[in-house]
Amino acid sequence: MIFLHSKRSVYACSIILTIIVVYNFWNYNPKQKYPFHPISTESPIQISTDVVILSTAAPILQPKQKNAKVIVTPSTITESNQTPTVVHLAVVLSLSKQASHIAEFYLLYESWRFLQNFPPLSQQVVVDLIVFCEQPSCHQLPSACIPLSYKKTVDMIATCFHEILDEEIVQKWNDYLYMTSIEFMLTKEYREATVDYDWILRVDQDAILSPGLLIGLTGKHPIKLYPMQFGGIGHGNEFTKNRLRNIAKKLGYNHSGIHDLCSAWLVNPKDAVKIANLTTIIGRHFLKNEFGAHVP
Ligand SMILES: *[C@@H]1O[C@H](CO)[C@@H](O)[C@H](O)[C@H]1NC(C)=O
Ligand SMILES: *[C@@H]1O[C@H](CO)[C@@H](O)[C@H](O)[C@H]1NC(C)=O
Prior knowledge:
- The protein has helices at 7-22, 75-79, 99-115, 121-124, 167-172, 180-183, 188-194, 212-217, 238-251, 269-290, and strands at 2-3, 24-28, 45-47, 87-95, 125-133, 146-147, 160-164, 199-202, 207-208, 228-232, 253-254, 261-267.
- By secondary structure, the protein is an alpha/beta fold.
- The protein has an 8-stranded mixed beta sheet with strand order 3-10-12-8-4-5-7-6, with helices on both faces. The protein has a two-stranded antiparallel sheet with strand order 1-9.
- The longest helix has 22 residues, at 269-290.
- Bound molecules: 2-acetamido-2-deoxy-beta-D-glucopyranose (2 copies).
- This is DUF7164 domain-containing protein.
- Keywords: Membrane, Transmembrane, Transmembrane helix.
């Protein structure tokens, strides 16, 4: 899989997603006034370097921490006693009404359909596509993308679902629209629809899925999956990184020393919601108090 970042998403990446890198969210000093959402496992996370490439030829998400513990399955699988024979993945994204974004989504959509041509792997991994579309872009989706409300359980047929992105979310982030691509993960509709998946792959609309994903998710790749993995690309400088570490301290978060995370996450459904929540909370703080023309 190759995540091609447009200028817009690289920008979004550098501002929003550093946030996640910046904070070690499972270490929180409860005396501080800022809320914290513990991540369920004391998991090492996996950060890939530069542009993320998942393909049959390239190793899936190079681990950076060589000594980190390798865990094959996400916590949701480990907790249930039987090993599931089928892995359920939801690729989730929001789609703005911009024509270029809709065009990019079509490429993602075709790459998602392409995944279904790889039996037997495509029978072992069922990949759904869930898109939260800002109106009127919902009308421009492929007609095969059915309303999310039709989804009852995870099943064996890969399906594309859509849900209208709440206008309130769009309004809330009118000063920083990129955050709508994360905040949709906090809606009741999103949370209810994704709770039963084994994995969530959060992407931007300009991502392309490669069949290499199926190899990784069936554990057939030599590099095993961590409980969480993130895309990464170098951005920001030492000044900003130091500043972020200091802000983390000020807010009562323990900084884990990880920078340069991007907007593609492969995590379990519960962690996806926690990370999205934390990102929007800290993102709002950044916008109001730390960065921007209005901040002295
Ligand atoms: C945060 O880091 C400090 C210093 O390393 C450590 O003493 C503290 O226990 C950490 N907090 C939590 C909640 O883990
Ligand atoms: C997000 O975090 C806040 C503050 O901790 C919490 O009250 C809220 O329930 C969380 N929302 C979700 C969707 O998890």
